[in-house]
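Weekly structure sync, notes
Attendees: PL (lead), two postdocs, one rotation student
Agenda item 3: pending single-chain targets
PL asked that the sequence for the first pending target be pasted directly into the notes so everyone works from the same version. It is reproduced below exactly as submitted, 149 residues in total.
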Amino acid sequence: EAVTDRFGSEVAPDGVVDRAAVARAAFATTEDRHWLEALLWPRVGARMVQWRQELEARTPPPRAIVVEVPLLFESGMDGAFDATIAVSAPEELRAERAASRGQEAVGERTSRQLTQRDKAERATYAVENDRGIEELEFKLSAILDMLQP
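Predicted structure, written out during the meeting:
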């Protein structure tokens, strides 16, 4: 409701949020982006904490809990995790992949993020994702194995 109040009904025609329309509106100005982040990030953080608590309460608890957070360091949520993994790829490949998923405003999104190098330096582990999914799964599985208690 707050999103439609801010950006109008074009972002949620028929009551269904059009993510591309939200992206266009949110990236139109710095003020709009900050407003949306202030609305979403606390909710995302609270939901992640709740989900982690639910999973850790299971018997037995899961071996690992994995959360994908594209703006982890930018949002300041990295302290909520025992370890972080930066998965990076060459910029051309990232843009190609985003376009194939139908994402819009890729340049605007990338321009406000930390660089791939900065994320890799801040993360506990860094993985290059410049090959196929099998290679990425192999690299991430190796990290998961290292994280075993």
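Discussion points:
- DSSP finds eight helices and two strands in the chain.
- The CA atoms of residues 64 and 147 lie 8 Å apart.
Action: rotation student to compare against the earlier draft before next sync.
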